[in-house]
Amino acid sequence: MPKLNENFLKLEKNYLFINIAKKINAFKQANPDADIIRMGIGDVTLPIAPAVVDAMKKACDEMGVKETFKGYEDSGAGYDFLKEAVSGYYKSFGADVSPDEIRINDGAKSDCGNIVDIFGDDNIILVTDPAYPVYVDSNLMSGRKIIYADSNEDNGFAAMPDYDVHADIIYLCSPNNPTGSVYTREQLAVWIDYAKKNNAVIIYDSAYEAFITDPNVPRSIFCVDGADEVAIEMCSLSKTAGFTGMRCGYTVIPDKLKVIASDGTEVSVSQIWGRRQGSKFNGVSYPVQRGAEAVFTEKGLEQIHENIAYYQENARIIADTMSELGVKFTGGINSPYIWFKCPNNMGSWDFFDLMLEKIAVVGTPGAGFGKNGEGWFRLTAFGDRQRTIEAMERFKELIKSL
Ligand code: PLP
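A: This is the predicted complex of the input protein with pyridoxal-5'-phosphate.
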C-alpha cells in the first residue's frame, strides 16, 4: 500500500475558493432569483488585447505550416524573443534584468509553489500573514517550519522583519494579495538587509506590479540595490494582460544569487532551478509566448493599460465608497484589491454570510488568508463597471442598516 504524504492532512480540507463556491451554490439553490454580484475571486473580466490576439493567430498559422512549425522548445525556459521583451519591460521601470536571468512559465502560481523543491526541508520559512495561500500550502506540503510576520492594522498591513528572529526563505508580495498594501523602496531595502544578515532568500511575488501608480513604489524588487544577491522574483501576465485563461508568467533568478551546499561549494540557484524545470516542466506553448511578446510592444502596452485603467477606476469607486462610509481599508490605490475592516467587529465569515444574504454580493473573507485576516474582508476591482457601482450602492444600504 502506498504511504501518503501526510503533510497534506495538515492543509485546510478545501482550498479557500472552493469553500466560497459551495456557500454561493447553497445560496443560489435557496434563492434562485437572487442577482448575485461576484467580487470574490481575483479573476479578470476584460478580453485579451487585440494586439495579443493578432500575434497568437499569426503564431497558430505558423504552427500549421511545415517550415514554421515548432515542437518542444529546446530550453523549456522560454523563447529568446519573449525573454528579451520581458527584459526590456523590466528596464523600462529601472530594473536591470538580463534575458538570461528570466524563465518563462505557465503563471506565477506554479513557480511560487514549485520553487520549494530546490530548497531543503529544514529551512525556516517566513510568510507575512495574511498571505496568498500557495506560499503556506506548498511549504506545509513538504513539512517545513513556517513562521509568520504580522501584517495588521498597526503597520498598514505591510509587515517588516524582526531582526531577533531567523528565517531562511522569505515570501513577500507587493502589491499584496489580499491586503492591497505595497512596500516602498525603503521598506524593501530593510527586507533585503534582513535577508543578507540571515543568508536568506526572498521570494518576491510581483503579480500585481502593473497596478502601481505611485513612483515611490518599486515595480520590481530589482529596482532596489542589493536585491540581485538575495531575491527571486515571480511575475505573471494574468493580471497585467488578462492571461488568467492563457497561462503565462516569468520568474527572475539573478546570476548573482548563490547558496552554499553542505560540502561548502557555492551553487547557483538559477542553475539548480533550471535543472529542476528541465526534468519537470516542458515550457509554454509557442502561440501563448508570441501573444505574451505582443503585450510588451508599444501597441500591446497601450491596450493593456486601457484595461488596467478600467479596473483602477473600479478600485477607486470601491475605495471612495469605503471612505464615504468611514470604513477602514487598505489598497484600492496601486492595487486591484480593497481590504476593509468588517463593521461592528464582525468576523470575516459572518460578514461574508451577511453580505450574501442581505445584498447578494460575494467577497472573500480575510480569515481565509491567515489569522491576521480575521475581521477583514477583500473585494476585487476586476468586475464590470456597472455591477461594481451597483454592488457599492447595495453595500452602502447594508452598512447604513447595521
Ligand atoms: N501571485 C499572487 C499574489 C496572486 O494573487 C495570483 C493570482 O491570483 C498569482 C500569483 C497567480 O497568478 P498566475 O495566474 O500567474 O498563476
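The chain has a mean pLDDT of 97. The first helix runs from residue 16 to 30.
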